[in-house]
Design a protein that fits this description.
3 domains; Four Helix Bundle (Hemerythrin (Met), subunit A); binds zinc ion; 4-stranded antiparallel β-sheet; binds adenosine monophosphate; Rossmann fold; 5-stranded parallel β-sheet; single chain
Length: 510
């Protein structure tokens, strides 16, 4: 198939044409969350943008297999080999076991992903499932002379590599994002960049999760999990590896060091790094404690879709500054956009279900034509036969959309194409199927059916009803049921029905 996507590759620091190892197929890996706390909206920025990357690839006709780990062991506070074990810290904070914490926050992460329309990856694997794979890789690294035992731990020996700083010319200070000031020197290390593959001598006496290994009872270092989990499911060659920019060093640098030493060849072709969401104090991070979550936003009446749109309006390779004022503006724009699309649906007489069925049929034809380099005009003309959809315009706008988002995941340009479609002189059905198809990538709920907005309630009536409900409650308390019934009747005569529920008395206009 024709490769139409360009990606900025952190490895080469260039925007390159994306060419997968296997024609039409993409092997993609995402560093998953460390499940000791809720994901904050900064973490979720990374997952939103990685989701758009996956969906853009699918839109372009690729079969994508995406794998993600869940870090439930081994990630220390410093991202290197010092500081507290994050999972243990979470368990102590909540007086629970590490596995209880892991389950709770994995479920919470999944719920957040659902709310933000982030597709759950094809394979999601917790690190604690793969201990034998980790041990195997470490054994091979020892055999090949890339690892050594010291002070009862197993370390990777970075002096054996031709090049360690594969992500290039940044200074080490710049790369060390989020490392704490109180880093202790590990005297077992032969070189300062060496890192732990397996801990047997845990400095946490109460380390909860430990396994037998050829080197004694212990637990894995953090970096080894992504190398092993990705190879388990994607094999020895990977197309795209993703993560937030802070993962570049030391995490991804160490992943490459151990994977390529183990494999004896290049491992990943494209590295995709999402820049940070910042608040006024800098990078948003779980360890700072006071974090913004999807629930925080919902508690303030903000639909998670507004946050997704906020992320999509800026480029993933630029830092993004969070502010409620900007979210307010995004909401205004979103509401107007939805209103336009809703009026088109009324004009075309199509609800979400009918629209999706039609758009799915056309998209299937378009993607198959992309994937197998078939004649696009012929394929789309066949798919739209008997409908009002303008085939030529459909192809034209689909190409524009793919050129926009396919240009290093330029989501804001993709959104501009949505507005171009709305502003064009195409018929309503053509506009709608195009927008529905684009929304398979943007995932902003652009075409879903929404309940009719409720008519605003007269505040005077509301105050009157609430005072009557209070009066009735008092009457019931005094066992004056005749009065309570009379109040119910009085309200009904004014067109208000009341109902007693476990949460109290509720009312509605009838
Ligand atoms: P963690 O749960 O800490 O392992 O992080 C999960 C993902 O979120 C990783 O890909 C991080 O690089 C990413 N991440 C962490 N903080 C931020 C932030 N403020 N903005 C964007 N991504 C972040
Ligand atoms: Zn990772």
């Amino acid at each position: 198939m024709e490769n139409k996507i360009q990606l900025f590759n952190t490895l080469t620091r260039k925007t390159e044409k994306f060419i997968p190892n296997e024609d039409g197929k993409v092997a993609m890996y995402t560093c998953g969350p460390t499940v000791y706390h809720f994901a904050h909206i900064g973490n979720l920025r990374s997952y939103i943008m990685e989701d758009v990357l996956e969906k853009t690839l699918r839109y372009a006709g690729y079969d994508v297999k995406r794998v993600m780990n869940i870090t439930d062991v081994g990630h220390l506070s410093s991202d290197a080999d010092t500081g507290e074990d994050k999972m243990l810290k979470g368990a102590k904070r909540e007086h629970k076991t590490v596995m209880e914490i892991a389950k709770f926050y994995t479920d919470a992460f999944k719920t957040d992903c659902e709310k933000l329309n982030i597709k759950w990856p094809d394979v999601v694997e917790p690190a604690t499932n793969c201990i034998s794979e980790f041990i195997h890789m470490i054994e091979v690294l020892l055999e090949k002379g890339y690892a050594y035992k010291a002070g009862e731990n197993i370390y990777f020996d970075t002096s054996k590599l031709k090049e360690y700083y594969v992500f290039g010319n940044q200074s080490e200070e710049e790369l060390l994002v989020g490392v704490r000031d109180d880093v202790e020197e590990d005297t077992n290390k032969r070189n300062k960049n060496d890192f732990v593959l397996w801990f047997t001598k845990s400095k946490f006496e109460d380390q909860a999760l430990k396994w037998d290994s050829p080197w004694g009872v212990g637990y894995p270092g953090w970096h080894i999990e992504c190398s092993c989990i990705s190879m388990k499911h994607l094999g020895e060659y990977m197309d795209i590896h993703c993560g937030g920019i802070d993962n570049m060093f030391p995490h991804h640098t160490n992943e490459i060091a151990q994977s390529e030493s183990y494999l004896g060849h290049k491992w990943v072709n494209y590295w995709f790094h999402v820049h940070h969401l910042n608040d006024r104090n800098g990078k948003m991070s779980k360890s700072k404690g006071d974090i913004l979550t999807v629930s925080t936003l919902e508690g303030k009446g903000i639909d998670p879709m507004i946050y997704r749109l906020f992320c999509l309006q800026s480029h993933y390779r630029k830092p993004l500054e969070f502010s409620y004022d900007v979210l307010d503006n995004v909401k205004n724009g979103y509401d107007k956009l939805i209103k336009k699309i809703d009026s088109l649906k009324t004009e075309a007489g199509l609800d979400h279900k009918a629209l999706s069925e039609l758009s799915l049929k056309i998209e299937k034809a378009r993607k198959t034509a992309e994937r197998y380099s078939k004649d696009m005009n012929e394929s789309i003309a066949k798919a739209v036969k008997g409908t009002e959809v303008d085939a030529t315009a459909y192809i034209d706008f689909s190409d524009k959309f793919l050129a926009a988002v396919g240009n290093d995941i330029n989501t804001s340009s993709g959104i501009t194409v949505v507005y171009d479609v709305l502003g064009s002189n195409l018929n309503a059905v053509t506009k709608l199927v195009l927008i529905d198809a684009f929304d398979q990538v943007l995932s902003l709920n652009l075409t879903v059916d929404r309940p009719e907005p409720k008519a605003a309630v007269d505040p005077e009536l509301e105050a009157f009803v609430l005072s009557k409900i209070e009066e009735r409650k008092e009457a019931k308390k005094n066992k004056d049921f005749a009065k309570a019934d009379a109040i119910r009747e009085e309200l009904l005569n004014k067109g208000v029905a009341i109902k007693d529920t476990r949460e109290g008395t509720v009312w509605e206009l009838v």
